[in-house]
Specification:
heterodimer; A: alpha+beta; 2 domains; 4-stranded antiparallel sheet; 11 helices; 10 strands; B: alpha/beta; 6-stranded mixed sheet; 31% helix
Chain lengths: 385, 224
């Protein structure tokens, strides 16, 4: 109780020192949460996308390179044979085959097929009316035509969204976004290109669903042998480059967090050790009146813990805001939309862990240093000055 | 407290030429006695104060407090002896800045069991003794230097010691204020029958002492 009262009073009566300490901790928490929420969001979205599709095999021309985060339907001019889908769907274990064109995209758990541009500049979509799920029939196109604004309304898009489609970024204007002279006036795919595509005999890739997962290796082997120009990927293989990229990103992130921890650690050490020297008379008084080293140690730790608590919550809030800001920046600079994870328990746990770790090392070390420097042993002499 | 200091020396540094701070110091005191130790700056007063307060260990010699040689005690026993028997007043008040006056007085009581359950009442009583009852919840920065020194006097009496050591308590006070503090100290010493040792540079402050020792270059001179 005495230790708590002391730590509490000190926190509010030594504002300068604790402001710097809190700022340091807040920086670490903010940075950790920002970066973690970004990769966490990316990984979650990729995994969700992989699971939601329930596609067992991805069939692509062998020349197509798998690239992280880039769906393969638009980045190759090479197409699969026109009759491949038909042949594959006749196999005994195959339940459904989906033909994917450069103008197919997956958004908010639904599939859309972009069919071209009307002369009066309207983006036109044919949304698939269902989610892909095991056993359901995959229809590559629906008969419902939707305009960009209708699509936005369907998904309650209040602002402008960039959709990556083929080699183009397509802007979908949200219901509240300002309309220009023509709706969705940016990112149009030229009419000629869309028209040319409809005449192409092949597709960029095929999604294949099987009757049961157990037959995946068998069917994969069979298709590979029958069609040497077709690369067959399981879902795990297809998303592997993305997961590898995320893994590398995570290592870079932890590197950045480690550097910041080090900087803050040195900063805190400087603050607290400097303060410890300045406060050595205070420690001396306590020792003279019966406080043990354990008491002083507990007191310094408790001060740190209060600092930690005071810094943690703003750090978390700034962190989650920072993650969103980072996402906006990436969108602005590279036209890449990264999903950012919201406030979640796991992120909270990780960031709290990091902040606690920084607090402990930043606060224990000066005490240890003080002991090693024998500051404690010389304390009492100061009282007679 | 019956106090006997025998052949106490304090050397700093090792080797063939150590610095001698105190050399074969002898001192004696009885219950309720007022003793002054007079000496110029650098004569070794503060070193002797620290040794008698059990904050420092002598290089050689013995100190008997009520017949017990306290130089033989280990560190925790010394802390306990200091808390239970010795009150200390330093040249500057040395209060804990983040504690209020009452908390400063109360803190030494929390380290031993003597006044368990009565810390608050006793702290208030002691602050009233030094006429600071109305400033019990003021922080040191809100008090004058003389008021802070009065709080430190109340703190020194917190655990009802029988030996009170005062190292130049008026050093940073002006003459009239210093005199008032000394009178207060003296009257409390008499009312509580404490053995008081006052370390001072000013011979006039030693006037009413029952015994006066003179310390010069670490050596204790004649006493009167």
């Amino acid at each position: 109780m005495v230790v708590f009262r002391l730590a509490w009073n000190n926190f509010f009566r030594s504002r300068h020192r604790f402001f710097l300490a809190s700022l340091g901790l807040m920086m670490v928490t903010t940075l950790s949460v920002s970066l973690l929420s970004l990769t966490h969001g990316l990984a979650t979205q990729t995994r969700k996308s992989m699971e939601n599709r329930q596609v067992d095999l991805y069939l692509l021309p062998t020349q197509t390179m798998l690239t992280p985060f880039v769906e393969q339907f638009g980045n190759s001019s090479v197409t699969l044979p026109a009759d491949l889908a038909e042949k594959i769907s006749q196999k005994r274990t195959v339940s459904a085959v989906c033909r994917v064109s450069p103008f197919t995209f997956y958004f908010k758990d639904r599939w859309f097929h972009f069919i071209g541009i009307e002369p009066d500049k309207f983006n036109v979509f044919y949304p698939s009316p269902f989610r892909l799920s095991r056993g359901s029939l995959i229809i590559p196109r629906s008969d419902t035509l939707m305009l960009g604004s209708q699509l936005a309304e369907l998904f309650h898009l209040n602002v402008e969204y960039m959709l990556s489609l083929g080699n183009q970024d397509l802007k979908v204007s949200g219901i509240l976004a300002k309309m220009g002279g023509a709706e969705d006036s940016q990112g149009f795919i030229p009419l000629e290109e869309a028209a040319a595509f409809t005449k192409k005999p092949g597709y960029s890739m095929l999604y294949v669903q099987l009757n049961n997962e157990a037959s995946i290796p068998e069917v994969k082997k069979e298709i590979t042998e029958e069609y040497p120009d077709v690369a067959v990927y399981t879902a795990k293989d297809y998303f592997a480059p993305t997961f590898h990229f995320l893994q590398r990103l995570k290592i870079i992130e932890w590197g950045i967090v480690a550097v910041v921890i080090l900087v803050v650690f040195l900063m805190q050490n400087e603050i607290f050790l400097g303060a410890a020297e300045a406060r050595s008379k205070e420690y001396a008084i306590f020792q003279a009146f019966g406080a043990s080293r354990a008491f002083i140690f507990a007191w310094i730790l408790l001060e740190g813990f209060i600092t930690f608590l005071v810094s943690l919550f703003p750090g978390l809030i700034f962190g989650f805001l920072g993650g969103t800001a980072l996402n906006d920046l990436l969108v602005e600079l590279f036209h890449l939309s990264f999903p950012v994870a919201g406030f979640s328990f796991s992120l909270l746990a990780i960031s709290t862990g990091i902040a606690l770790f920084v607090t402990v090392i930043a606060l224990v070390s000066p005490s240890v240093l003080m002991t090693n420097l024998k500051v404690f042993n010389e304390l009492e002499k100061q009282l007679c000055d | 407290m019956r106090l006997k200091v025998q052949n106490v020396s304090k050397n700093l540094g090792g080797g063939p030429w150590p610095t001698t701070l105190l050399e074969n110091v002898e001192l004696e005191g009885q219950d309720g006695e007022f003793i002054t130790v007079f000496g110029e700056s650098g004569s070794g007063k503060s070193t002797l104060f620290s040794i008698l307060s059990l904050l420092e260990h002598p290089s050689t010699g013995s100190i008997f407090m009520d017949g017990m040689d306290v130089t033989m005690l280990d560190e925790p026993q010394k802390v306990e002896t200091r808390l239970e028997n010795i009150g200390m007043i330093f040249p500057s008040p040395n209060l804990i800045p983040s504690f209020s006056a009452i908390e400063n007085v109360l803190f030494p009581m929390t380290r031993i069991k003597r006044f368990k359950g009565h810390h608050s009442e006793r702290s208030k009583f002691l602050l009233a003794l030094v006429d600071l009852a109305d400033k019990a919840f003021a922080f040191p920065e809100e008090l004058s230097l003389e008021e802070r020194q009065r709080v430190s006097l109340a703190r020194a009496l917190a655990n009802r010691p029988n030996l009170l050591l005062a190292d130049e308590p008026t050093k940073y006070l002006d003459e009239p204020t210093g005199q008032q503090l000394l009178q207060r100290l003296r009257s409390l010493q008499q009312s509580q029958n404490l053995t008081l040792i006052l370390f001072t540079q000013d011979k006039t402050k030693a006037k009413s002492a029952t015994k006066t020792y003179t310390l010069k270059s670490g050596k204790m001179g004649t006493h009167h």
